[in-house]
Amino acid sequence: MPKLYDISPVISPRLMVWPGDTPPTREVLCELDKGDSVTLSTLRTTVHLGAHADGPNHYGPGARSIEQQSLTHYLGACRVVDAKVERGTRIEPRHIVGGVGAIREKRVLIRSGTFPDFSKWNSDFAGLSVALVDALASRGVITIGVDTPSVDLQDSKDLPAHKAILRHDIAIIEGLRLEGVPAGTYELIALPLPLEGFDGSPVRAVLRRGRH
After folding, report:
1. Which residues are catalytic?
2. DSSP bridge partners of 187
3. CATH number, domain with residue 196
4. In-domain check, residue 86
């Protein structure tokens, strides 16, 4: 049987969102325990919630919205790699364990371990360097995922990693829960919702190993 790893943080009021963004809340409109025929809930929250895919229009004027993204970015062979890096710094190619040159998959998930608790916000998580984005693009990478809230540092205003990713037309998945997942190759399943015009979507990100 295939081995599955659920790499999505649980969505609850305890899940932290970007400072100033909209946290998840649930409004129960109908409830079986109160005699209603069904339980019916309304969810209000940011689309950049937990494990989520960014639409290019989140960081690029006039760029595609999330429903216009090719699903190929979010489904297929992927590699989980470790980055040995200090908090509050950018990940360079030299920080990738095993080297960027060993990456042959088109989708790469980078584990830095610099945002360890999704219920406690820490602002000093690591970001990606432009050099790393360029190096991954040269390997044919079409999707980069991270275990932090952003591919850029929290206090970044010019967003160099986002801009490099836009230049290479690479997809972004942020907020992945990669603790306990062995480094290596998997099938990634992390499909966004087709939210018309939106700048992102939550995903239920799963890694599958041993499918064949």
Report:
1. 58
2. 77, 208
3. 3.50.30.50
4. yes
